[in-house]
Amino acid sequence: MxxxxxxxxxxxxxxxxxxxxxxxxxxxxxxxxxxxxRFTYYDDPDGPEHFFERNVxxxxxxxxxxxxIGPFCAIAARAQFIMxxxxxxxxxxxxxPFAIFGHGWDDGFDVADWGSGVRGDTVIGADVWxxxxxxxxxxxTIGAGxxxxxxxxxxxxxxxxxxxAGNPARVVRMRxxxxxxxxxxxxxxxxxxxxxxxxxxxxxxxxxxxxLEALK
Length: 216
Hints:
By secondary structure, the protein is of the alpha/beta class. It has 5 helices and 15 strands.
């Protein structure tokens, strides 16, 4: 009988038959400005191990912004997280980044002035599903249980358990009513010990919130 412990979250490639899917947390261990929750995975036939190089764009240490992705998130191929380093200054007469080319064009440039336009951390809640080629812009917060449709461009915060789609992404509908969302957030099953989550999987799968609440 297979042990009821769930997969090891420290495993890079949890599926025996393919390395197309990987848990992201093990790849983030040496990244100070990144936090990835357990069991969050990225699925890409071109190699999920390249997620931070190919999918997290303009994430520079000197900017100081963080990418925080909660546990149990599912991220599809080529989803993009655009960080604050992509921003161009809007306070002058041109948005062209003269200073990065040096050779005198950086004279008088003040990083602090540029940094005043930084929009903060990008925070993805637990149990979020991000579709293929979706794009998350800087400083966005996506609530737990939300769904971001394929090729959506997320320009503003997404409420918990909302389904958003389009460019710019808009709420198509809520997955549950307000009272049910409040109950789900109070249960927060994704923070439970793995053995309890394992026992709760039938209730999670069947949408049995009452049983889930009894297991808390």
